[in-house]
User: Fold this.
Amino acid sequence: MSASDHHDTREGFLLAGGAYFIWGFLPLYMKALAHVPALEVVPHRILWSLPIAALVVWWKGEARDWLTSLRDPKALAMALLTATLISVNWGTYVWAIGAGRALETALGYYINPLFSVFLAAVLIGERLNGAQIFAIVLAGAAVAILTWEAGGLPWVSIVLTVSWGFYAYFKRILPVEPTRGFLYEVALLALPSLVLIGWFEAQGTSHFVHTGWIDTALLVGSGLVTAIPLMLYANGAKRLRLSTIAVMQYSAPTMIFLIAVFVFHEAFGMAKLFAFALIWTALVIYTWSLIAAARRRGA
Assistant:
């Protein structure tokens, strides 16, 4: 998946915008499942994503290529790694929303672009400019403030940032087209998901079918709200400039932040306000440097 360096398209805006819209309102959906353990929700997200991803791959005429990629040991190992990372990300996110820690999820996704820049510098030796270094320092200061205020690391934010950052990094290395790669991941996770769902059934604590049609519909629908935005984003990002994606990506955590404060009424004291102000400042600096670099290239 690579964004266009030359121009934006209407299709790109619609596809990527649709993905960020769904991600932005996803806390409302997951809050409705707050009474269901994350270990039960995530397997349903995976299993109900599987037929959707398979249908899209078939519709695009890529089923044969996907089956061929199953014989590639490198692709298998990389897909297993990305599947593990995305399952950790999903599990942390679902738990955090249910536990009343949506603000921490917003912080994690705000920090993620800066972590990705840092990761590129560490792993592939990309050079950071002064603005990017300053933005990363400000993000670090924000985490330090929240650590001091809470008496411990904001681990939800850190796990979400690190898991998604490494997922995106290895996803670029995965020698499979994004939609096929997603199908690869959920297919690998299907068996463990079935085992977990079977365990809840055996314990008599399953919410699927047994606790009413609303829970059942929400669990089935979790596949839709998982698979659709990921595939919308994968196809939209290819039709937009990197600088455009850089600006658009803040829409989802901003919506999560607003929902956390004004809908979920999570505590937002002065320490959190100051920390988020540092993050927002860091993102403005980072985005400005990215757009300036794109303009110099004539993109």
User: Anything to note?
Assistant: The CA atoms of residues 246 and 287 lie 6 Å apart. Residues 10-297 form one domain. The two ends are 18 Å apart (CA to CA). The chain has a mean pLDDT of 87.
